[in-house]
Amino acid sequence: MELLTDYDVTIQYHPSSNKVRATFIEEIKAKQFEDENLNELKKKTVIGKALETTLDGEGVLSFKGRVCVPRVNDLIQKLLIESHDW
Q1: pTM over the 0.85 mark
Q2: Which residues span the domain enclosing 58?
Q3: Domain of life here (predicted)?
């Protein structure tokens, strides 16, 4: 099983900038728990076993204050392309 700590990746969303479309955030929220690893992390977060992860009021999983991007479809690739096109 891959863990978030296995990667050195940072994706930051800045609401005041238009670098990443707001629709990506909505898509991330909608698909976050289709990712098996993120779903397991959510379960651990709920029972207090994943200390650096949080669930916000909308049920969005974050790791160290950053939204967890699911590995489903081509969402990560689309996000990277979009953020580099501006």
Answers
A1: no
A2: 4-84
A3: Eukaryota
